Amino acid sequence: MTESPSRAEEGDARSDERQGDSYGFPAGLWRALARHRPPGFGRSRLWRSPLRGPWLTSALGVVLLITLPIVTVTGLLSYIAYAPQFGQAIPAEVGWLRLPPFTWPTRPAWLYQANQGLHVVLGLVLVPVVLAKLWSVVPKLSSWPPVRSPAQLLERLSLLLLVGGVLFEIVTGVLNIQYDYVFGFSFYAAHYFGAWVFIGGFVAHVTVKLPRVVTALRSRSLRAELRTPRERTRPEPPDEDGLVAAEPAEPTLSRRAALGLVGGGSLLVAVLTAGQVVGGFTRRFALLLPRGRSQGAGPNGFQVNRTFEASLIDPRETGPGWRLVLSGGPRPVKLDRASLLAMPQHTATLPIACVEGWATTQTWTGVRLRDLAESAGVPDPASALVASLETAGAFDRATLQANQVLDPAALLALRVNGAELALDHGYPARVIVPALPGVHNTKWVRSIEFRSR
């Protein structure tokens, strides 16, 4: 039994035929496509909300137009913070998508914390806005036939890149935050290349749609809409994009309430996530914590992303026989923990910020890296390779830039908050450097190779 088309659908079919003729498409083919719609496509009475229209879609679009570039830029800056010039950013080989390299600064010390916190928290906060924007354009996404002209084909391709790119980045990003390596592929590589797919779609879509967005926003007053209750909410006039319902139903809420619902959802996500970056009393409200939930005890009572047990290090390697090997100078230097404690000790209050968004600020005590470089016979190093006792992890070593080695607050930490480092936090020694991504603050350090200029 076939379903009879509604009057609105018949009108849409006739409109499609006229548009097909105007673009030089065969009228017979156009009529055939219009009459054989797949289930769910082009059924205008499925999308009857009187709130949908160019104005609401454009209002949500402007929010994303301002904020999504911030999420994108902070994500690309995070990639640069991993020092791709040393081949340690993931992916290492990106071809012509390589970003201009520059030396990631060590000041302010909270730079990476702010950058990555903004990237993750803002990305999560925008999820309700993205979903609302997709809801507002569902009739357009499900129209049939999907393409009516060569120009519309290009528009549809840009929309596919945009929607597919943003959904891929959100879904994979959230899964990576909450779960430990659930993908059958490299999240970091996929997230990087996915970002460029989104960027291409975003630029193309904005170029095509910006004039219509400006026109739509000027068609109605934001102040008036925020004062309009449900009882006086009316559909927008029919539009050429087909966003306005042909047979609108009675409103169940006003546009003011719809915007408030989306904004309230974003605010709730912010409250449940921002505390992991801001810290202090707000941390207790950060219920949407990333997977790094392990905590130490006492002075070591703060986040641990990778525990000592997970590192698979033989506990005997961190015992009395442990030695730190310094190389790069005339001859290697080996230091036990007592020798390191006998060297001048320095204290710095520095954050550790994880790529997943969480951050914690603690007070660290140890030997300055630049003092160790001098002890190794390389007082002015170009870089330093720090290696961990761990050999099974993806980040068992890290290359530090010259400014990161020579910063007066960059330490080989032996103590934290006045107590010995716990095994989970890197005992017998770990690196702590201002504004450095968390995984490059290498734990369970076994050697440092200082490389000459």
TrEMBL record:
GO terms for molecular function: oxidoreductase activity. Signal peptide: none annotated. Keywords: Membrane, Transmembrane, Transmembrane helix. Residues 321-452 form the Oxidoreductase molybdopterin-binding domain. The chain crosses the membrane at residues 55-82, 117-138, 159-179, 185-208. The keyword Isomerase does not apply. Residues 1-20, 226-237 have a biased composition (Basic and acidic residues). The keyword Signal does not apply. InterPro entries: Mopterin_OxRdtase_euk, OxRdtase_Mopterin-bd_dom, OxRdtase_Mopterin-bd_sf. It comes from the Bacteria. Residues 1-22, 226-246 are annotated as: Disordered. This is DMSO/TMAO reductase YedYZ molybdopterin-dependent catalytic subunit. It comes from Halosaccharopolyspora lacisalsi. The lineage of its organism: Bacteria, Bacillati, Actinomycetota, Actinomycetes, Pseudonocardiales.
